[in-house]
Write a structure and sequence with these properties.
Blueprint (H helix, E strand, L loop, with lengths): L14 E9 L18 E7 L6 E3 L5 H5 L10 H18 L7 E4 L7 H6 L4 E4 L3 H9 L4 E2 L5 H9 L4 E7 L8 H11 E12 L1 H6 L12 E2 L2 H9 L3 E9 L5 E8 L9 H12 L5 H5 L1 H21 L4 E4 L3 H10 L9 E2 L17 E2 L2 H6 L3 E4 L5 H7 L9 E4 L5 E4 L4 E5 L2
Amino acid sequence: MRIAQCRFSYQPLHHTFVDLGMSPLANAYLAAEQLNNAEKFYPLHAYISEDNLLVQLEQFETPDQIFSDYAYFSSYSATWLKHAKTYTDMIVDKFGLNPQTQVIEIASNDGYLLQYFVEKGIPVLGIEPAANIAKVAQEKGIPSINKFFGVETAKELVIQGKQADLLVGNNVLAHVPDLNDFIAGMKLLLKPNGILTMEFPHILQLIQQNQFDTIYHEHFSYFSFLTVEKIFAAHNLKIFDVEELPTHGGSLRIYVKHDYADNPIISERVSQIKAKEIAAGLHRIETYITFGEKVKQTKHKLLSFILTAKAKGKSIVGYGAPAKGNTLLNYCGIGKDFIDYTVDRNPYKQGLFLPGTHIPIFHPDTIRETKPDYVLILPWNLKEEIMEQMAFISEWGGQFVVPIPEVQVYSLPVRNLLSIVS
């Protein structure tokens, strides 16, 4: 089995975290002319290592195959843009960033974050592996290079005189198959007194909120604070602060410095989050290996709801075409016989089809035209934003369905929870 590599040692992976069956790559959207071609499916089986409690997937495709041409553009979420601007204002004030400081973001996407530093006159550089997305950032006037990040890229930048006062990596750590190379590269790129911040989904929330659909092949690893602290310590990097965030269903933002740096001092929040994880059992393998049964129950409840609705002649469509939605639909066996179509604000996805299920992706206006009975919100982490955008479905009595952590049906006003399928 080929797994993500990092410097601390591994034991053979014998323990299952959750087995989601066979699934295509979650972002491998199809054009109409590809629908009759053979489609690759891979085991979507997450394991837990007994020695360091890192949840991992097997690697079946290289990062080049997965990320070189990518369909996810961060700027199409108003919620995420607001999050990025709030972060920028906070971090500039907290660490006194100015036009003489350098901000570098790894996996900078379409410039969703760096644009706010540019507005403040702070020099930026984005590093983005997907050529199509890096081009969009460059067209916005945001300096971006089209490269995968690791030690070699870091060395090239250091030779060019580029090092970071603030190094940022949002929702990239899980996508890295070689953690050792990636974190070693960050250490090289970080100035002696520089600050590194990273955000990633918190496995505590994944387990407690039943967020199994956030598992897909593009995510090689899933982290607790206890585990990520060990990984960074192996590279002589020290986590000095941590925040719990609501983004992506519950994330952590860690603040990191070189271990030889005296400042900033270690925040009390570091010991608090470790205590919280230990209280939740994240230091014991038993907590992880029981997760699969909870996932099966959610699958049964969702299928029961859909079968009942269809038996009553109700129409169901999706909202969104996120990677997590493709995990959910493929694992549950929900295709065009259940979901008529889905919609997405991202024009790069419109006109394509979901991998595996071949559900077509249309413009959001299609919902107003067809007036479905139910709208299944696939990016459930954005449900408030989506319900606000699509509030007009109340005109014909339409209702929203949110599948995670368990099936919930909402009518407007959006806080009116009609039912939980039991």
